[in-house]
Design a protein that fits this description.
alpha/beta; 5-stranded parallel sheet; two-stranded parallel ribbon; globular
């Protein structure tokens, strides 16, 4: 839950202040019970968002820009593999790490997910501490890459303004 501290500086009991250090996790699963379990597990350190289908997931990923997406494979209408493919095809979402959380544990299913660009594939039931470690590593890596992209963009703008940047000099 995202809140702001009231005028007296008191934070209501059981609620957390949104800070940039808190990660934003998008859980995509048609099983509400499972999504609640994940939220309970992650809410201490993360702001957890939930999408129950592919269309909600694609919209939320684009609009909210989560740090990590936890994605189920077996969903009605559009399966998780297709959601991942669409996320990786869009410039606005291609850099968001996707971790598949699914009951499909076969090596061939894992290979499909990783080939589509997922950074992880975790079979249900999963080990919560291991999943938290994987999520935290992906959040740190994404934030470092985002920072690098911002610096690269800012640096090219400065060079362009100084007259040192020429588009045709890129090879």
């Amino acid at each position: 839950m995202t809140i702001t501290v009231n005028a007296s500086g008191v934070q209501p009991k059981g609620q957390r202040v949104r800070t940039e250090s808190r990660s934003r996790i998008l859980v995509v699963d048609d099983d509400y019970f499972f999504a609640d379990v994940l939220e309970d597990m992650l809410r201490e350190d993360s702001d957890v968002m939930y999408a129950s289908n592919a269309y909600m997931a694609l919209e939320m990923a684009t609009q909210k820009q989560p740090d990590v997406i936890l994605l189920d494979v077996m969903m009605p209408e559009v399966h998780g593999y297709e959601v991942c493919r669409r996320l990786k095809a869009r410039s606005q979402t291609r850099n968001i790490p996707v971790i598949f959380l699914t009951s499909l544990g076969e090596a061939s299913s894992r290979k499909i997910g990783l080939d589509l660009g997922a950074v992880g594939y975790v079979a249900k039931p999963f080990d919560p501490p291991k999943l938290k470690v994987l999520i935290n590593l992906q959040v740190k890596e994404k934030r470092a890459m985002d920072k690098q992209r911002r610096w690269r963009t800012a640096g090219s703008k400065v060079l362009h303004l100084m007259g040192f940047w020429r588009q045709d000099s890129l090879v």
